[in-house]
Amino acid sequence: MKVKALSRSTADYTRETKSDLQRVQRNIDPALHPLERAREYKRALNAAKLERMFAKPFLASLSGHVDGVYSMAKNPWDLDQIITGSGDGEIRMWSLERQETAWKAREAHRGIVRGVCNIPGGATDRFLSVGTDKLVKVWSRSEGAVSSDGTAEAIATYAGRHAFTSVDHHRSQAQFATGSSLVEVWDVERSEPVANLTWGADTINAVRMNQTEVNVLASSGTDRSVVLYDLRTRSALSKVVLKLSSNAIAWNPMEAFTFAVGNEDHNVYTFDMRRMDHAVNVLRDHVSAVMDVDYSPTGGELVSGSYDRTVRLWDVARGHSRDVYHTKRMQRVFSVRYTLDNSYVLSGSDDSNLRLWRARASERLGAKSNRERATAEYSDKLKDRYKHVPEVRRVLRQRNIPTAIKRASQTKHEMLASRRRKEENQRKHAKPGTKPRIPERQRPIIGTTSK
Q1: How far apart, in whole angstroms, are the C-alpha atoms of residue 194 and residue 72?
Q2: Cβ(250)–Cβ(294) under 8 Å?
Q3: Closest alpha carbon to 377 in 392, 363, 387, 389
Q4: Radius of gyration of the chain (CA)
Q5: What is the distance between the alpha carbons of residues 404 and 444, in angstroms, rounded to a whole number?
Q6: Of the candidates 148, 96, 129, 111, which has an alpha carbon nearest to the alpha carbon of residue 344?
């Protein structure tokens, strides 16, 4: 005779210590939980409301400059260090942990410091700076000398023929590139440029070296062009001409062929250098010129600073910003950077302040327990699952923005709608095929050229 008996071990429901949670037996059969979807929706709505309630992105304002912050550089070998250049020629090195100035050079340049960049390698703390005084200077906090009045002195100085606008260093070689009326490639052991690169521009606005494909250099000029150069052959590769000029360039650290440009037409364009005849994506939410852009270390997000006094964060796969940062005192933003731990964003504006923001406005800082981490992940999954529901979508998209920017955004929306309506009317009254529709990703491009 076979007898069936129910039994269970006490280890299945007994706590090992008093701090452990009580183990509860659950049956995950969906037939036994008819209200599960309703409960999940309510939890998703509450999670969205809590996210907006605790969204406080601003952390600190680092003051010390007496003029606007127009250039910024981060050190890949030191997460605590950030370097800024001011409009009065002063350079400061900041400690983000202590939120104070760690080193400064008062009269580093005569005029605006237009660019700063770290020298890669990690063995030294040297960095470069360029200004409108036609000088390139090499600085070091540990190696540099100090004059009798306490002013830091440069280690080396290179003299150019034109006022410089940008600088960037090669990832592995002792070379750096500067932008002025042309792109100049320098060797640190020589006092003159080893190569002069130009293709039509009167003034170069930005120069950026690819940190993955290290032999590729990108530049943007006042002739509305974005040009790619090959450092091995010291010649141009390709050129794309946009409707307006670009102020900044940033290479994606995870995708070697992708870069972003901040344009005067209020948009950020991402390009694939292998096909420059159209943009990979168009990021549009700013209402004034985009002055600087930078990728996150993961390559999946991008930050931009604009003349409209806002900082916006983007998902590179989407066309609209996921968040917008602003304060009452912040003026026009000229430089932005993502920190290398992907947790913070830095912005420099012409009100002489360097501001520190959270990369995710509602994220809790500090160490988290396993339960807190699991709860946060569960909430994120719920918000992602129900983000299409109107109530959840409305809460997640809600932002308090300045009245001037809101009005400018509405005016811009009406202008673009009017332009589309006019083009559609012209297309209706034109001969079929004479006025084709132009995709939005090709609309800002006037032409491309390859060598």
Answers
A1: 26
A2: yes
A3: 363
A4: 26
A5: 26
A6: 96
What is the total residue count of the chain? 451
How far is residue 7's CA from residue 176's CA, in Å, rounded to a whole number? Answer: 74
Q: Which of 287, 309, 294, 308 is nearest to 339 (CA)?
A: 294
Cα–Cα dist 37/6, whole Å:
33
Contact 258, 251 (CB under 8 A): yes
Is pLDDT larger for residue 19 or for residue 418?
A: 418
Structure tokens given for 234: 């010291």
Q: How far apart are CA 51 and CA 368, in angstroms?
A: 17
- pLDDT digits 0-9 by tens, 150-184: 678 888 899 999 999 999 999 988 999 999 999 99
- The residue to which tokens 């680092």 are assigned: 62
Residue 10 buriedness (CB in 10 A; 0-12 / 13-18 / 19+): exposed
- Using CA atoms, how far apart are residues 117 and 83, in angstroms rounded to an integer? 8
CA-based angle 203:205:267, to the nearest 5? Answer: 130
Neighbour-count burial for 228-260, b at 16+ CB within 10 Å, e otherwise: bbebeeeebbbbbbbeebbbbbbbbbebebbbb
Dihedral angle sign, alpha carbons of residues 220, 221, 225, 230: negative
Report the helix count and the strand count for the chain, using DSSP H and E: 4, 29
**pTM for the whole structure:** 0.89
Mean per-residue pLDDT over the chain, rounded: 91
Q: Model confidence over 182-223: pLDDT tens digits?
A: 999 999 889 899 999 988 778 899 999 999 999 999 999 999
**pLDDT tens readout for residues 273-285:** 999 999 999 999 9
Does residue 266 sit in helix, strand or coil? coil
Q: Quick one: pLDDT band at residue 12, thresholds 50, 70, 90?
A: confident
Q: What confidence score (pLDDT) does residue 1 get? A: 72
* Whole-number Å distance between alpha carbons of 308 and 192: 39
pLDDT score recorded for residue 22:
77
